[in-house]
């Protein structure tokens, strides 16, 4: 059986490609363009899985959605202990936290605050949560090369999308977070990252600087 990644252009499914590239896992890539009118996924993508959102993978009779579920599936089935930290590792708690923090807190906060109307109470709550998240991330990266410590892990593969590709949709500044910006530059130099991002969206320049310039 071969693993098939269904990648919606300009979406978080790009990190599934990256995870596979870092693990040197062979896969078949099928890409889908966003609807020109709505910028949402096309019907052909929505029909792949009941959840209807990116990412989605298939292997044999299995069709699986949800980023964290796909990460767990790939790491457990193919990782052979790579890109994860074991429970007896001193940074295990950091690894688990950051692996799940992106989907659990960071992206929901971004989605809420960057689309909220002025004076929206929930938007203000989520903005505060976003600021705490970025502050904590910046502090973590001040003393660590990677998000869970000195080792590159799957948590790093989870981290890049909201800080890069997502900012093409709704630009936001990272000027207050210099250690996050340094981290983005370090990660963007990885061969696995470069190969995966070019396969996902050929020619797309993802922002890794503090300020997003969409005119470039």
From TrEMBL:
Pfam families: GST_C, GST_N_2. Gene3D superfamilies: 1.20.1050.10, Glutaredoxin. Belongs to the GST superfamily. This is glutathione transferase. Keywords: Transferase. InterPro entries: Glutathione-S-Trfase_C-like (IPR010987), Glutathione-S-Trfase_C_sf (IPR036282), Glutathione_S-Trfase (IPR040079), Glutathione_S-Trfase_N (IPR004045), GST_C (IPR004046), Thioredoxin-like_sf (IPR036249). Its EC number is 2.5.1.18. Residues 88-211 form the GST C-terminal domain. The keyword Zinc does not apply. One of its GO terms (molecular function) is glutathione transferase activity. Residues 1-82 form the GST N-terminal domain. One of its GO terms (cellular component) is cytoplasm.
